[in-house]
Amino acid sequence: MKTMKHVTEEVTPIRLRINGEKVFNKFIAWLFFRMFRREKRLTDYPRLKLALLFKAELENVTDVVPGYDDYEWHFKVKCTSCNEVNNNWVGVNRLDQNEIPGSRGSANLVMRCKFCKRESSAQFDTSPVTPYTIENSGKFAQMTTIECRGLEFIDFEPRATVGTDSGTKFEDIDLTDGDWAEYDEKGGIPVGISEVQAEFKRV
């Protein structure tokens, strides 16, 4: 009886010939990866919760709060996918609700990074904004929290429609330049807000 010999054949990988040389076909592997890879959705990004801390020197002003429910908050935004910072201030309204692509959810802000084209979102906490009081003058205090996906807020610019109350209520205060001064005729005293700063803390 003849003995059968088992021969193991070596499988040759698919190769490409470029300029007369054989190379492993990494292109085909990349092509298959692109065909079957699921695009990353906003819900795949980890949640990042940020506390907005506000600081200012208050002169005869009892508290500082956004003047209206539809106050437009302005932030500098960094994409957490490519780490690029948007050069423009981005406005966010707590009352706005925008659909999140690929999800049944919504958020106050939904935007696409102009560098890497990835989607990102941000949603304010539903609890009321905490006024900045004269007891906190010169110290950082938390005003609100925001949940982010795919982005991070790195700066805040207070603008018009910030309300204050020093016995007399002042509205439409512009803190773009970092300070504001007025005279309270009812109280007969000067009032002012100066040395405005803001920072974000991960919570």
UniProtKB/TrEMBL annotation:
The keyword Metal-binding applies. The keyword Cell division does not apply. InterPro entries: CXXC_Zn-binding_euk. SUPFAM superfamilies: MAL13P1.257-like. GO terms for molecular function: zinc ion binding. Keywords: Metal-binding, Zinc. This is 9927_t:CDS:1. Belongs to the UPF0587 family. Coiled coil: none annotated. It comes from the Eukaryota. It comes from Funneliformis mosseae.
